[in-house]
Write a structure and sequence with these properties.
345 residues; 13 helices
Length: 345
């Protein structure tokens, strides 16, 4: 886009947000839900994709549940982007955060994670497109546990500066993905924490690990970073509670370096482990996940080439000690079926 077009887009969005956010948050959340309902009614592409992913992830679910969850997830997404992303710096500060965010003192994994961070240990924090991935790092930084999060910069430089300013308003630092690897290493070596959204499709060159009973492509860089720096991975999120602008912090698991030391292929084991943790969070909050994301778009080479699963990959799957033999069998069988479909196509 040209500079004039960038400025016009920026001005239009700033004006629209200013008008929209002159109304109470509760009213804006209702508006966002109504917009989402209307959009899903006319957008067959996203409606069909979300339902397809939900049926594959929850084959035992009824069609009514699939349709209801698909709509609720999209309503949550629009509430997040239309309302909460912009309102968070205004509504959440040192004196008010507890009105919008709760912490469960009985959550053992959360207590362990907070103790680890309070001790000043470096760590990698992982979340997914579930709940509010924007709010998580914001609140931790506000509470004196500064985070550095990786994000892709927007193409429009004016919008990028505005959105980055909102994100960094309470101490969260945003690191753009371009050239971020070296800086992430330096942050961890200095005792800092780096956050990733770790449930995006990593393309054909990713590492294929189980996610809802199907192989999904995940980035190798997160596990490599944890392994080379010998730092723990904390898997958690912030999840909408009670329907409005109120969230609960959760930690599903803290994965310490010694956990992957026994694995034949530590990179595969660790990537599969944190992906399984992300899956557990999505299973607890399916109505807050980004089901319209093409998470299973990329397929492993053996499926694309119409051949059997490599023996080495099958062995890695069976080494995942949280999978039962029947669960591993089901993943292998599903991949074999997908192999046949890809080859026939």
């Amino acid at each position: 886009m040209t500079r004039v077009a960038d400025l016009a887009q920026y001005a239009a969005l700033r004006g629209a947000f200013a008008l929209f956010h002159s109304f109470p948050v509760s009213a804006n959340l209702r508006t966002a839900r109504a917009v989402a309902r209307a959009y899903m009614a006319i957008s067959a592409k996203h409606r069909v994709r979300g339902r397809r992913h939900l049926r594959a992830a929850f084959p035992e679910a009824t069609e009514a549940w699939v349709q209801q969850t698909n709509l609720a997830a999209f309503q949550h997404l629009l509430q997040l982007f239309m309302v909460e992303a912009m309102q968070t710096p205004r509504l959440i500060n040192h004196s008010s955060w507890h009105r919008h965010v709760s912490v469960n003192a009985q959550d053992g994994a959360l207590r362990r994670a907070l103790q680890l961070l309070a001790q000043g240990r470096p760590a990698i924090f992982i979340t997914g497109h579930c709940g509010s991935w924007e709010l998580l790092g914001f609140v931790l930084s506000l509470l004196g546990l500064p985070m550095v999060a990786l994000a892709r910069p927007l193409d429009n430089p004016y919008l990028n500066r505005w959105i980055m300013g909102v994100r960094e308003a309470r101490g969260l630092r945003i690191l753009t993905k371009f050239g971020a690897s070296k800086e992430a290493v330096q942050i961890l070596r200095s005792g800092g924490r780096v956050g990733f959204i770790a449930d995006q499709d990593a393309g054909m060159d990713g590492v294929f690990v189980p996610f809802f009973g199907r192989l999904a492509s995940a980035y190798k860089s997160i596990a490599l970073l944890a392994m080379t720096q010998e730092v723990p991975i904390i898997v958690g999120g912030a999840f909408r509670d009670a329907g409005g602008f109120h969230y609960r912090l959760e930690v599903d698991e803290v994965i310490e370096p010694e956990a992957w030391s026994h694995a034949t292929d530590p990179l595969y084991w660790l990537t599969a482990r944190y992906t399984a943790s992300l899956e557990r969070m999505v299973r607890r909050h399916p109505d807050q996940y980004l089901w319209i994301h093409r998470r299973w778009k990329s397929r492993p080479r053996h499926e694309r080439e119409g051949v059997s699963m490599p023996t080495r990959l099958e062995a890695k799957l069976r080494e995942l000690d949280w999978l039962s033999p029947s669960e591993a069998d089901a993943i292998i069988s599903r991949s074999a079926a997908a192999t046949g479909e890809c080859h026939a196509a």
